[in-house]
Amino acid sequence: MFKVENVSLLYDLDKEDKTHALTHINLEIKEGQFYGILGPSGSGKSSLLYLLSGIQKPTSGKVYYKGAVLSEMEEEALAAIRLKEFGFVFQKHFLIPYMDVLHNTLVPLNSKKPDDVEKAKNLLERLGLERELKKKPYELSGGQCQRVAVARALINEPKVLFADEITASLDHKAASSVMELLEEIKAQTTILFVTHDETKIAMADEMIYLREGQLGGDKDED
Ligand SMILES: Nc1ncnc2c1ncn2[C@@H]1O[C@H](COP(=O)(O)OP(=O)(O)OP(=O)(O)O)[C@@H](O)[C@H]1O
Ligand SMILES: [Mg+2]
């Protein structure tokens, strides 16, 4: 589904001291698999998700999605893929501050159809947020915001879910409700799940270990 070909990503290109976030990565992501992505802080996990989702363009090398090079696509075509096929839960939640929980969840659908509203409510209920529907992000805890971001990412039934530390600020019960939802969509969704917590990835089909921007290294060193 994705192919990463000799990709490097450097930040601060205009500065003397550049940051090598990822170096010469080669990787294949197969459709319908659950990938656990592990590695120390700063090893390039979030950067890898940005590259795969087309949010960042590689400094060198190519990222293919279904045979097409993401960085060579027209901005509009890429935006359409992101909206229809990708769901992204960032490490920071990026909810829209003036919208309530229900409407934040509906953002990707841009819809107020009764069916969609029901679907959003159902997802939010599954995530334990049924009493929060009318609250704005500033009235929520960090973990509640995180769960709204999960609902927003899933409302589209994405083909690919990019999940960056989505359970990090959740207690056991809330984290379990998130993992249960992922278990349910696993068969029809390719999931890229970044975490520091290996117990969360018991259901992973494959593991990707990053260390200082390179693949490899094993869990014992993490
Ligand atoms: N916008 C940016 N500008 C400059 N450097 C950046 C930027 N974003 C990330 N970096 C650097 O790139 C490297 C990889 O960062 P990345 O966020 O991908 O790590 P990570 O594995 O997700 O870390 P964490 O577990 O802390 O989230 C780090 O050295 C980081 O400082
Ligand atoms: Mg990160």
UniProtKB/TrEMBL annotation:
- Please report the name of this protein according to its UniProt entry: Phosphonate-transporting ATPase
**Name of one Pfam family that matches:** ABC_tran
Phylogenetic placement of the source organism: Bacteria, Bacillati, Bacillota, Clostridia, Lachnospirales
Q: Does the keyword field hold Magnesium?
A: no
**Which EC number(s) does the record attach to this protein?**
3.6.3.28
Q: Which GO terms describe its molecular function?
A: ATP binding; ATP hydrolysis activity; transmembrane transporter activity
Q: Which domain of life is it from?
A: Bacteria
- Organism whose genome encodes this protein: Cellulosilyticum lentocellum (strain ATCC 49066 / DSM 5427 / NCIMB 11756 / RHM5)
Asked if DNA damage is a keyword of the record, the answer is no
InterPro entries to which the protein is assigned, alphabetical? AAA+_ATPase, ABC_transporter-like_ATP-bd, ABC_transporter-like_CS, ABC_transpr_LolD-like, MacB-like_ATP-bd, P-loop_NTPase
Write out the entry's keywords from A to Z. ATP-binding, Hydrolase, Nucleotide-binding, Transport
User: PANTHER family this protein is in?
Assistant: ABC TRANSPORTER ABCH.1 (PTHR24220:SF86), IMPORT ATP-BINDING PROTEIN (PTHR24220)
GO cellular component annotations, sorted alphabetically?
plasma membrane
- Top EC group: hydrolase
Q: Where is the ABC transporter domain?
A: 2-222
